[in-house]
Amino acid sequence: MEAIRVGYAFCGSFCTYDRAMAALEQVRARFEDVVPIVSETSAATDTRFGNAHDFLREMERICGRRVVDTIAKAEPIGPQGLLDVLVICPCTGNTLAKLACGITDTAVTMAAKAHLRNGRPLVIAVSTNDALAGSAKNIGALLDKKNVYFVPFRQDDPVRKPTSVVADFGQVTQTIEAALAGKQLQPLLLGPAG
Ligand SMILES: Cc1cc2nc3c(=O)[nH]c(=O)nc-3n(C[C@H](O)[C@H](O)[C@H](O)COP(=O)(O)O)c2cc1C
Predict the structure, then answer these.
(1) Alpha carbon of 80 to ligand 1 centroid (Å)
(2) Residue closest by Cα to atom 22 of ligand 1
(3) Which of 17, 57, 105, 145 sits at 20 to 30 Å (Cα–Cα) from 93?
């Protein structure tokens, strides 16, 4: 395994947690040092998709370390250069908007700000129902931002959710590897799921 330090941040797209957790397992199998990070919403919200406490314990089990769940715990990522790459998977429309506008009021946006100041890659796995509506301008702004890469994504249900887009969680590890080499994994825009 490579001695690359990976941050893996969950935001509150709860319906994708099973896929994001499977992707975390794959990332952990590839990279020895993986730091779990959660937004405050992720840490505090129980939903029909599961209990927040159980999700946090599962992340800690996979990574073998405690979650970073506050701005104060995320802040040293910058000055101490703690990560080589940071992944936000899943990334909500809310966090996309904050990243695009420079708002830093969660553990995840603090981790991203701290990490980007070091000129290192940030990988985003988007999951939001308004990706082709309200969030489109934020995705566009981030696509154009230095050191920001996207996990390839597709419309997940064009008929019933015409503005919804979800990353292909099976490509998270490959996107990290490409980002570490300064490249965007292609194709970025995927067709309908087979
Ligand atoms: C059950 C449930 C599912 C949600 N799924 C999504 C989602 O897939 N994508 C999204 O952008 N927001 C989703 N949200 C809304 C976010 O959790 C909400 O915008 C929150 O403020 C996100 O905070 P964060 O980005 O700091 O994690 C969902 C909320 C709930 C309660």
Answers:
(1) 30
(2) 12
(3) 57
pLDDT of res. 1: 60
Tokens 């194709």 correspond to 187
Residue nearest to atom 28 of ligand 1 (CA): 13
The rounded distance, in Å, linking the Cα atoms of 192 and 194 is 6
109 lines ligand 1 (CB under 6 A): no
For the chain, residues with pLDDT lower than 70 are: 1-2
Q: Which DSSP string corresponds to 169-181?
A: GGGHHHHHHHHHT
CA distance 124 to 131: 13
Q: Which pLDDT does position 194 carry in this prediction? A: 75
The verdict on the CB of residue 12 being under 6 Å from ligand 1 is: yes
- The b-or-e profile of 54-73 (16+ CB within 10 A means b, else e) is ebbebbeebbeeebbbebeb
For residue range 152-165, list pLDDT tens digits in order: 999 999 999 999 99
Cα distances (Å, whole numbers) of residue 13 to 121, 154, 194: 22, 16, 23
- State residue 2's pLDDT score: 61
Cα 189 to ligand 1 centroid, rounded to whole Å: 23
